[in-house]
């Protein structure tokens, strides 16, 4: 049990530093100092900074996607479920510790030959895209696969832009704007569903 607590503490400290300060700006010695552990203890749990980063990305994505799925299911079907990702993002933005997308921030700091972290980020982004496809499919009936992909892809692109731009501008107007544009992606389709 103690080992799990130490590993969790290391990951929590590293996650906060990676997200607020950036992956490159966070050194192993800083993680060790803030976690109040010995260097050997860190390397007992994680073989490298990259291993810590992979665990951090897994943890952040898992928390995000689980929270988003619950949030969407709690909304009435139809329009509100289709817009839920923007409402969820707005709630994330209102958190004092919002620094944009943890995955994209990390990706932008990596050399392109770091294939392991890049592959994980791509996998996680695809999981979000596929989930949005499920939301579209459940809320807009009788769509072709191409229509579903176009709408879910549009929602995904609006979300990705909104999370980045809201962090850049330190304002939530990009989230509100993305949310207001989203219905233009499926306006006719939602009317078809009602009939």
UniProtKB/TrEMBL annotation:
Residue ranges of domain HTH tetR-type in the record: 4-64
Keyword DNA damage (UniProt): no
PROSITE patterns for the chain: HTH_TETR_2 (PS50977)
UniProt xrefs under Pfam families: TetR_N (PF00440)
DNA-binding region range list: 27-46
InterPro entries xrefs: Homeodomain-like_sf, HTH_TetR
Name of the protein this chain belongs to: Regulatory protein TetR
Keywords associated with the record: DNA-binding, Transcription, Transcription regulation
Listed GO MF terms: DNA binding
Lineage top rank: taxon: Bacteria
């Amino acid at each position: 049990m103690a080992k799990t607590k130490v590993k969790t503490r290391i990951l929590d400290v590293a996650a906060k530093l990676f997200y607020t300060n950036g992956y490159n700006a966070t050194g192993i010695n800083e993680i060790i100092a803030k976690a109040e552990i010995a260097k050997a203890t860190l390397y007992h749990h994680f073989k490298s900074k990259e291993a810590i980063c992979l665990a951090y990305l897994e943890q952040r994505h898992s928390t995000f996607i689980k929270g988003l799925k619950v949030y969407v299911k709690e909304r009435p079907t139809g329009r509100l479920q289709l817009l839920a990702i923007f409402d969820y993002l707005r709630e994330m933005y209102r958190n004092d510790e919002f620094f944009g997308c943890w995955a994209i921030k990390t990706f932008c700091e990596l050399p392109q030959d770091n294939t392991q972290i890049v592959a994980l980020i791509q996998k996680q982004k695809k999981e979000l895209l596929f989930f949005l496809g499920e939301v579209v499919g459940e809320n807009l009936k009788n769509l072709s696969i191409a229509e579903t992909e176009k709408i879910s892809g549009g929602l995904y692109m609006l979300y990705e832009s909104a999370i980045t731009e809201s962090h850049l501008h330190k304002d939530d107007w990009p989230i509100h704007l993305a949310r207001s544009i989203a219905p233009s992606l499926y306006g006719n389709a939602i009317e078809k569903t009602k009939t």
